[in-house]
Amino acid sequence: MLKLALFDCDGTLVDSQHAIIAAMEAGFAAHGVISPPPMAVRRVVGLPLVAAVAQLAPLLDASAHEAIAEAYKAAFYHNRLAGTHPEPLFDGVLEALDRLEAAGFALGIATGKSRRGLDATLAHHGLAPRFVTLQTSDRVAGKPSPDMVHAALAESGADASGTVVIGDTSFDILMARNARVRSVGVAWGYHDGAELLAAGADRLVHDYAALPDAVAGLLDKG
């Protein structure tokens, strides 16, 4: 049986909060609207972009949500080219990926990023060849829908019983539950650990050193 470790990106693999907050501020400013506070922006990381904007600005109409999202994408792209808001890997990512691969896991990603954004992030860190499936919310229904997990299983050949989702938000955990796969919450991201457990995470880890054993242990239980 192929085993699949399916990672979120923002807040799980990379710390992109400053880049996301800056782009969201620019997106709202381009529409002449005051941006929500950074903590509110952190809360919606992981949702599809238009859905995130809609949650941040529920009094605006759908066309405004779309316009802010487009301005966000333009700002994020500009900031990436300028190098003003890097997206560093969290400490221990590479070692954890090595250990998971050595334990027989294939690696995948399911993220609220666009495919263009994900490709740029992975290319910057030289990680693209390590992942056998890349699922983004501009191509498949976003979290907490199970569709990205289902697409990852179809593309990789993995089975739900051998798959573990790894993420930092309740959206990741709910996606895993909706897809009937196991999940590990990571406490270094944008939702706190208690919230991840309340959403149904099977395990919670506080650093990357603990992640490979937590993921493997879920499948060892059967």
Short description:
The chain is an alpha/beta fold and 222 residues long. It is built from 10 helices and 6 strands; from the N terminus they run βαααααβαβαβαβαβα.
**Spatial strand sequence of the major β-sheet:** 3-2-1-4-5-6
How does the overall form come out from the CA principal axes? globular
> What fraction strand?
5-15%
Mean pLDDT: 96
Give me the secondary-structure category. alpha/beta
According to CATH, the fold-level topology of the largest domain is Rossmann fold
Number of strands: 6
* Domain count: 2
- The number of helices is 10
Distance between the termini: 12 Å
- The helicity comes to 40-55%
The CATH superfamily of the largest domain turns out to be: HAD superfamily/HAD-like
What is the gyration radius calculated from CA atoms? 17 Å
Known CATH architecture of the largest domain: 3-Layer(aba) Sandwich
Q: Which H/E pattern describes the elements? A: EHHHHHEHEHEHEHEH
Flag low-confidence runs. none
CATH class of the largest domain: Alpha Beta
Outline the biggest β-sheet: 6 strands, parallel
